[in-house]
Amino acid sequence: MGKIYDVIILGAGPAGLAAGLYAGRSRLSTLIIEKGQDGGQIAITDEIENYPGQRVEGESGASLVARMTEQAEKFGCERVADTVTEVLLDEEIKVIKTSKEEYYSKNVIIATGAYARPIGCKNEANYIGRGVSYCATCDANFFEDFEVYVVGGGDSAVEEALYLSKFARKVTIIHRRDELRAAKSIQEKAFANPKVAFMWDSVVEEIGGEDILSEMKVKNLKTGEVTTVVADEEDGMFGLFGFIGTIPNSDLFKGKVAMDERGYIVGDENMNTDVEGVFVAGDVRIKSLRQVVTAAADGAIAATWIERKISGYL
């Protein structure tokens, strides 16, 4: 058996990097394993306005994450770029197997995040951060007085459409059925809002634009008719928000820790899972708000709880 870390953190998004910062400052031997680029979803966000203490203008997701990475490394976090293939969590010493190596730790923080379920239209990936978004709380300010479109018909989609109506001059909900799936109380608010419109029985088939999103094709599933939506000439663009669910990156942990029916990991207020020495932080856990600030808080709590446990304070 090789080196036994105090904590191994799986994922280098805001939750994992914050956990690394707190663990490193507590002088815990810490390893962060990340298969891709640091930051997760935030790394592809062009502008960040709602993280406390940051620059109000000119802050990108990439620049914020770069500072988080630098902080974690400054306090001694080791880094590995690799894909985790298997985890053995039941014993006192946890085993993390990657495509290249095995790592051992007394504690593990699962911070693997979640990703938005894509709308499914052609060219979607090309316009993420350039008109396409999956977070109204993150990006509503960028669409002040613009027209925006929301794909979905559940509670989240309608609630986010109502939130967007505080900023946009018009919000159109595109739903593949002829009625919403959201709770009746939420539907009533949407129908009563003069800034909210609806495109029923419809799906977005394709989106386009020279640099930013300015055109899309919407197909009516009953008639087969395809409508081309073009941005107002003065605006030059519109927003397209997808709210058809998120998918947690938790497949690796199925049968290992408790999850809900959607695959989100159960964690208490101190980020403990149902397995001793295994913690969860960030968007992969069951929570009411998935934002950079809440992910970072989760990571800080998990690492602090581990430090207290190792130090015998608990």
Automatic annotation (TrEMBL):
UniProt-listed Pfam families? Pyr_redox_2
InterPro entries named among the record's database cross-references: FAD/NAD-bd_sf, FAD/NAD-binding_dom, Ferredoxin-NADP_redctase_2, Pyr_nucl-diS_OxRdtase_2_AS, Thioredox_Rdtase
Q: Which PROSITE patterns match?
A: PYRIDINE_REDOX_2
Q: Which UniProt keywords apply?
A: Disulfide bond, FAD, Flavoprotein, NADP, Oxidoreductase, Redox-active center
Catalytic activities: [thioredoxin]-dithiol + NADP(+) = [thioredoxin]-disulfide + NADPH + H(+)
Task: Note how many cofactor molecules are bound and how.
Answer: Binds 1 FAD per subunit.
EC number(s) stated in the UniProt entry for this protein: 1.8.1.9
Give this protein's Gene Ontology molecular function annotations. Answer: thioredoxin-disulfide reductase (NADPH) activity
Tell me the superkingdom of the source.
Bacteria
Looking at the record, the residues that make up the FAD/NAD(P)-binding domain are 5-299
- Record has Oxidoreductase as a keyword: yes
So which cofactors does this thing need? FAD
Family assignment from sequence similarity: Belongs to the class-II pyridine nucleotide-disulfide oxidoreductase family.
Q: Please describe the quaternary structure of this protein.
A: Homodimer.
This one is known as Thioredoxin reductase
Origin species: Ohessyouella blattaphilus
Q: What is the lineage of its organism?
A: Bacteria, Bacillati, Bacillota, Clostridia, Lachnospirales
Gene field: trxB
